[in-house]
Amino acid sequence: MQCRDRCGTCCIAPSITSPIPGMPHGKPAGIPCVQLDDELRCRLFGRPERPRFCGSLQPQAEMCGQSREQALAGLLELDRATAP
Fold first, then answer.
1. For a tag on the chain, would you pick the N or C end, based on fewer CB atoms within 10 A?
2. For residue 13, what are the CA distances in angstroms to 32, 68, 75, 76?
3. Do 26 and 17 form a contact (C-beta atoms < 8 A)?
4. Residue 35, C-beta contacts closer than 8 angstroms, at least 6 positions apart
5. DSSP 27
6. Which Pfam families did the record assign (predicted)?
7. Residue 72, CA distances (Å) to 22, 39, 47, 77 in order
8. What is the reported pTM?
9. What is the 3 state secondary structure string of 32-55?
């Protein structure tokens, strides 16, 4: 499955605990990553400084739903369900 154009929910919804360039302490759930550009694409995609967690998120119908709104809601819920 390909990423939905202008979605970016995987760069907004999940909390990330590892350092991100520009966010040395990671980011909380629901907050856009500073590496998300105006086209809602990751500036670090394919680069070695991209957090491993980000690379592990692969688009799947179950995760992405039928719309950007469904993807955001689903990923926020998954983040809440897996929080320590």
1. C
2. 8, 11, 6, 5
3. yes
4. 11, 20, 21, 22, 42, 43, 44
5. B
6. CxxCxxCC (PF03692)
7. 23, 16, 24, 9
8. 0.88
9. CCCCECCCCCECCCCCCCCCHHHH
**Cβ atoms of residues 18 and 28 within 8 Å:** no
Nearest to 72 by CA among 14, 28, 23: 14
| Cα–Cα distance measured from residue 33 to residue 8, given in angstroms and rounded to the nearest whole number | 9
Sign, Cα dihedral of 54, 55, 57, 58: positive
Tens digit of pLDDT for each residue in 11-29?
Answer: 999 999 999 999 999 999 9
Determine whether 66 is exposed, middle or buried from the number of CB atoms within 10 Å of its CB (0-12, 13-18, 19+).
Answer: exposed
Candidates 52, 16, 48; CA nearest to 34 is 16
